[in-house]
Amino acid sequence: MSYLHTSGTTDADGWFDTGDIGRADGPDPFVENHLADISGIADHAPWKRRGELVDEEVVLYVVADSLPLEEIKQRVVELPAFMRPAAVVQIAALPRDAAAGKVQRRLLTEQPVLSWSELG
Q: What are the structural domains of the chain?
């Protein structure tokens, strides 16, 4: 996780720099990149759920014709423990923002589940 602080000036395009402090989390892109080359996965996104032993744990949502569960398990153990998905959920499509194509993670839990596999 890194913190960004801006200086209160404008940039070259004239956008005003408000001086607000924001947070850029690294786990989601790290997990996505680490699992990106698993064959058979057309699309994927990590999200969270309330955990039994911890406040939150990672759940991996995937779009795949056939879920490559063994390959996912092999790759997941290479991740730091706090980034490892506790479950893999197969869905038909990731909900994306129409304008930018960004995954709407908060809508992942509302998607119809094709299969659910606990990894723990």
A: 27-118 (3.30.300.30)
pTM confidence score: 0.75
| DSSP state string for the chain | -EEEE--S-B-TT--B----EEEE--HHHHHHHHHTT-TTEEEEEEEEEE-SSSSEEEEEEEEESS--HHHHHHHHTTS-GGGSEEEEEEES---B-TTT--B-GGGGGGSPEEEEEE--
Q: Give residue-wise pLDDT tens across range 89-113.
A: 999 999 999 999 999 999 999 999 9
What is the tens place of the pLDDT at every residue in 23-57? Answer: 445 578 899 999 999 999 999 999 999 887 778 99
The Cα 61–Cα 93 span in angstroms is 9
